[in-house]
Amino acid sequence: MTHLLALSELSVQQIEGLLERAQAIQDHGVAPRITEPAFVANLFFEPSTRTRFSFEVAEKRLGFNVLNVEEATSSVQKGETLYDTLRLLEEIGVRAAVIRHFEAGFYKDLRDRLTLSIINAGDGDGHHPSQTLLDLLTMRQEFQQFQGLTVAMIGDLRHSRVARSNAEVLHRLGVKVILTGPKAWQDPSFPGSYVSIDEAVETADVVNLLRIQKERHREMDGFTPEAYHQAYGLTLKRAQAMKPEAIIMHPAPFNRDVEIASELVESKQSRIFKQMHNGVFMRMAIMEWACQGRPNANNQRIELTV
To answer: What kind and span of H or E run contains 62?
Structure first.
């Protein structure tokens, strides 16, 4: 089976292949379509707007029949385990499950017990591979290459699965990763060097801001939203010191006037909504990669045609 769990499990060549496929789908303007009916399921156990709807649009553009499993109305509320839910989906013919889960590494005891593909749509403070891939696609479109770039990851690093995924992959791609954020939210395991917020903004080619993960810690370590904005946010004054060709990114949802000044969200240097746009094409490439050639219960294989 083909899973997408963490990008650390993929080679640079595999990552580049997924990026190239997403770009090709976007450039051609024609979506590949499955030739035989097939089902995929989305299971989101944490709130999500961008990731969930982006995957659903991608799946429907590919021609999949889509099942959306709601935690509140599923048998999880009756004590059913995630494994048993997935075995049910497997038995009724679901080819792939896109899962957002609050537990980091939820997939570790599932990957070898199932024949359906698991696509990790974010696991606690662990990994978020599809977000990292769409971030890479956005950077690639802007700069054509990764080697030699400097990317600043700014904010709540310790609780951010996006930061963890991005830092690891960027390092392998030859990108210089610099980090900054409140000391209590730093993580020494991240590849990269810590610098001041002003140095990060002034030297980065990509200023990648991170949402404060309020749901993963009880308080903002003494920060008010206004104080955080002044200490670690991209203020209008700080943005003036950015390189002219540098871009602003944020995985969203973003808190206006906390991580980023509201006026900068749709500024000339911002690529925040471009990231969202790229998410559909990237997730189409992911679903195609995960499902193409996979046999179903009748030993029929999914084939996609353009």
So the answer is: helix 50-62
CB neighbour list of residue 268: distance below 8 Å, 6 or more residues apart = none
> Same CATH fold, 129-270 and 7-124+277-305?
yes
The ranges of the chain with pLDDT < 70 are 1, 71-78, 214-221, 293-306
Annotated binding site: 50-51, 78, 100, 128, 131, 161, 211, 252-253
Report pLDDT digits (tens) over 219-242.
Answer: 666 788 899 999 999 999 999 999
Decide which of 3.40.50.360, 1.10.1740.10, 3.40.718.10, 3.40.50.1370 is the CATH code for 7-124+277-305.
Answer: 3.40.50.1370
| Residues 120/174, Cβ–Cβ less than 8 Å | no
List binding-site positions for carbamoyl phosphate: 50-51, 100, 128, 131, 252-253
Would you kindly state where each structural domain of the chain is located, as residue ranges? Answer: 7-124+277-305, 129-270
For the chain, what's the residue count? 306
CA separation for the pair 46, 103 (Å, rounded)? 10
- Architecture per CATH, 129-270: 3-Layer(aba) Sandwich (3.40)
- Which amino acid type is present at position 205? D
In the three-class reduction of DSSP (H, G, I as helix; E, B as strand; rest coil), residue 84 is classed as helix
Rounded to an integer, what is the distance from CA 272 to the centroid of its chain?
13
Binding residues for L-aspartate are: 78, 161, 211
Instruction: Give the chain's mean pLDDT.
Output: 90
* Burial (Cβ within 10 Å: 0-12, 13-18, ≥19) of residue 155: buried
The predicted pLDDT at position 300 comes to: 40
Question: Dihedrals φ, ψ of 290, to 5°?
Answer: -75, -30
